[in-house]
Design a protein that fits this description.
heterodimer, A: 269 residues, 13-stranded mixed beta sheet, 4 helices, B: 544 residues, TIM Barrel, 8-stranded parallel beta sheet, 7-stranded mixed beta sheet, 28 strands, 23% strand
């Protein structure tokens, strides 16, 4: 195991895409310490900001308030990063595999354009979780993002495959231009959920305000809900039994695009 | 002072084809002899005149709009990190200004022609060209949808139209005249296009695309501009458009003309499913008519972004592909559309396009009249030219590539039957000597005494694409820019501009029209000569 402890929070954000098991692999302790990070326009060493203990390992533990440390786990393919504290923007962006766990909050763009792996955040997340970066055709394409707290705007924007589950409330435009995949909203959402969605599934366990371009199709029990809930349970994310086996109202949309997406809203009995 | 010794020199203008001889340079020019100074040993290398790009889009409002539209492509682009020589920048499909200069020079190209400038964004264009280092530049001003010019053609006032065009060229500090989809972009302002050469343009009674084409070609020749009218024909990209192209070439019989990116104008078939190559009839007609020059506008497979003043076509492309689209309306002058695009080898239409570009380069038998371009960035980015050179020089490699095309596409093209291979001399012609001659830049594209000392020196290598992608030395204006394959020095480029003669009183005619129809004040419109960095006035031939 390799443990990094932030010495003090940097005044301007630190770009630290080297914080990844892939980059640490095969490096001696002193080589890890010398890895480059960008502080503003200055190129500095990793050990200018972190106390580092241990040798190269797929198990990386990072301690401290990293809310100004960006790009942690960027493009990682394997191993595990455990963050005790908060994480900065672009956590696990372009991630392909492995696990990232955060005990505190994460900022915007968690898992942006990720293609595999698991990100589990115990606190709140910012906006654009699993989203497409500006200009890109699609966002997250496979992989799982679990958020125990709340999340910001544009969660799952243009996502193509994979699951995002949020226990707390999310803000506007969840599932904006969604192309596929599953978005589980356990704490409800603000307005314009599923706007311009083409395909994919948004599940809400709370009543939400729908756009007029979504129309009611039917009320039913989706059998996949049982299977998905069991899968999420195995990752340490519990869906209440009532919701797992419950009845949902199914809305089709977004007819403005026109799209073949669906929004399922739980009807507690 | 500099002497390049021991290299095989290719200087087709002066009838030198691979002879081992010295090239001597002093004061930025090629000279007969130098005493002392530095010597470059070019043994085992080939010595070319610096490349000249006759048709590219590297600066200005439209290109900058495209840069803004494709952040997703920038994220994949190669970064140029600032060092003692280079400014920071980015490569990719629409390189930044400084990077454009470094990338062209890094390939051995030393002169580029920015092919589409509306007068309204000419100031912006010249500012960007100023920041495009190393290469020398020219630019062409868009005229074929300028409503003041079209109104004069409608009224039959060709004499006054000539003065207006000449005034516009100088106002834009341009080098020549570009015509894009004549009449079609004006019609686009009504939501229409101009698909037939002989039908009046929307909003006009008499003006047809044919009249615009022949009118502008005549005006350009009468003004004695060094470069003929630079024409992007009607019906670009549409299946069956080769008939329009043939008709256009017939309309041009009495004048000189440069047919831009001919690949996009040589398709048969009725729709996207029946599209086929009609490069053969186009090339036959072209071979028989020596008043014409052309550039290939070749396509290579991969991601790019399409940029053109041809607004209606870009709207169609957006509808066809579902990709994002940006449209610019440039007041009374022209339009512009941007659509990101990916050419795919397994796509029937793209495969035919890829073949047509190469077919034209191989079927047009006079290399002095067909030049290497990709209509950057429309067909592919300019830094991929070495890949096309390899396809032209190596028929075996070409046949291998053809095998990757869909079977249906292979029935629609004649490329598999073409065995012609370009020699190094031919490559020197289509990349340098030919385009320089077509642009009327007598000091470019050759290594004779008095020529600008723009030289590219390549290692002789069986891997042709690699050889041309990484020159060993590049010399621009006598300064060594690239040495041992590495950039050692950056110099500033110049801009060539023409000042055709016109009646000064024409301003009295344009001013009231301008004040009535334009959003900007007349006095702010022309580009001041001080704004053009390294301005060089090129000579017009004496007007008839």
């Amino acid at each position: 195991m390799i443990t990094l402890t932030l010495k003090e929070q940097p005044a301007v954000p630190l770009e630290a895409e080297v914080l990844s098991p892939d980059r640490f692999a095969g490096l001696r302790h002193d080589e890890v310490r010398a890895l480059p990070v960008y502080h503003g326009k200055r190129r500095l060493r990793l050990d200018d900001f972190f106390d580092i203990e241990g040798d190269c390992s797929d198990d990386v533990q990072i301690r401290g308030d990293l809310s100004r440390v960006k790009w942690i786990g960027r493009g990682m393919t394997r191993g595990r990063i455990r963050i005790t504290g908060n994480a900065g923007m672009h956590l696990g962006a372009h991630m392909k595999g492995g696990i990232i766990e955060v005990s505190g909050n994460a900022s915007d763009w968690v898992g942006g354009e990720m293609t595999g792996g698991l990100i589990h955040i115990r606190g709140n997340a910012g906006g654009q979780v699993g989203a497409a970066y500006r200009g890109s055709v699609s966002g997250m394409n496979r992989g799982t993002i679990l958020i125990e707290g709340s999340a910001g705007i544009e969660v799952g924007m243009r996502m193509k495959r994979g699951i995002i589950a949020v226990r707390g409330p999310v803000r506007d435009f969840a599932g904006l231009q969604m192309k596929g995949g599953t978005l589980v909203l356990m704490g409800g959402a603000e307005i314009r959920t599923g706007a311009w969605m083409v395909r994919g599934t948004i599940i809400s366990l709370k009543p939400i305000r729908l756009l007029p371009t979504f129309s009611l199709a039917c009320t039913y029990h989706p059998p996949f809900m049982t299977i998905y809930s069991k899968h999420l349970q195995s990752l340490g994310f519990t869906v209440p039994y009532d919701a797992r086996e419950g009845i949902y109202r199914r809305y089709n949309g977004d007819a403005a695009v026109p799209g073949k997406g669906e929004i399922l809203v739980w009807e507690p009995q | 002072m500099l002497r390049i010794t021991g290299g095989k020199v290719y200087d087709p203008t002066n009838n030198v084809h691979g002879e081992i001889r010295d090239v001597c340079i002093a004061n930025g020019r090629v000279v007969a002899q130098v005493e002392g100074g530095r010597t470059i040993d070019a043994s085992g290398m080939v010595v070319f005149p610096g490349g000249v790009d006759v048709h590219t889009h590297v600066a200005g409002g439209a290109l900058n709009f495209a840069r803004g539209l494709i952040p997703e492509q920038h994220r994949q682009a190669a970064a140029i990190v600032r060092d003692n020589i280079r400014r920071a920048g980015m490569g990719g499909t629409t390189p930044t200004t400084f990077a454009t200069g470094y990338l062209y020079a890094g390939m051995g190209w030393t002169t580029v022609n920015e092919a589409a400038v509306p007068i309204l964004s000419a100031k912006h264009t010249h500012e960007e060209l100023r920041d495009t280092p190393i290469v020398d530049k020219t630019c062409l001003v868009l005229m074929a949808n300028n409503e003041i010019v079209l109104d004069l053609l409608e009224a039959g006032e060709i004499e006054r139209a000539r003065h207006v065009v000449a005034w516009n060229i100088w106002a834009a500090k341009a080098y020549g005249v570009k015509a894009v989809n004549p009449g079609g972009v004006a019609a686009w302002k009504w939501g229409k296009d101009a698909k037939s050469l002989s039908e009046p343009v929307e909003g006009y009674k008499k003006v047809t695309p044919a009249k615009i084409v022949s009118g502008l070609a005549r005006i350009v020749d009468d003004l004695g501009l060094p470069h003929p009218v630079h024409l992007h024909c009607n019906n670009l990209g549409a299946p069956g458009n080769y008939t329009t192209t043939l008709e256009t070439m017939k309309v041009l019989e009495a004048n000189r003309a440069h047919m831009a990116h001919l690949q996009y104008h040589a398709y048969g078939g009725e729709d996207w499913f029946s599209i086929r190559s009609e490069a053969a009839p186009i090339a036959d007609y072209f071979n028989a008519h020596r008043n014409l020059t052309t550039d290939a506008g070749a396509v290579l497979f991969g991601n790019t972004v399409t940029i053109t003043a041809d607004g209606p076509w870009q709207h169609l492309l957006h509808k066809l592909t579902g990709k994002k689209w940006a449209n610019l309306d440039v007041e009374n002058e022209t339009g512009c559309g941007i659509v990101p695009y990916a050419y795919k080898e397994k796509n029937l239409v793209n495969a035919v396009q890829w073949a047509v570009g190469l077919e034209l380069l191989l079927l047009i038998n006079d290399p002095w009249r067909v030049f290497l371009t990709t209509d950057h960035p429309n067909g592919a980015t300019f830094w991929r030219y070495p890949e096309i050179i390899q396809l032209l020089m190596d028929a075996e490699f070409r046949r291998e590539q053809i095998k990757g095309l869909p079977a249906k596409a292979r029935e629609r093209i004649i490329l598999p039957d073409l065995d012609r291979q370009y020699s190094l001399s031919d490559i020197a012609i289509i990349t340098s000597a030919g385009p320089a001659r077509a642009l009327g830049l007598s000091q470019k594209g050759h290594l004779g005494v008095g020529a600008d000392a723009d030289v590219a020196i390549y290692d002789e290598n069986k891997d042709i694409a690699r050889m041309f992608a990484y020159p060993r030395y590049v010399i621009k204006g006598g300064e060594i820019v690239i040495e041992e394959g590495e950039m050692r020095h950056s110099v500033e480029g110049r801009e060539f501009v023409v000042r055709p003669t016109y009646d000064e009183k024409i301003e009295e005619f344009i001013r009231p029209l301008f004040q009535q129809y334009y959003t900007m004040s007349f006095d702010n419109y022309p580009v001041e000569p001080e704004r053009v960095h390294g301005l060089q006035i090129a000579n017009c031939r004496l007007p008839k």
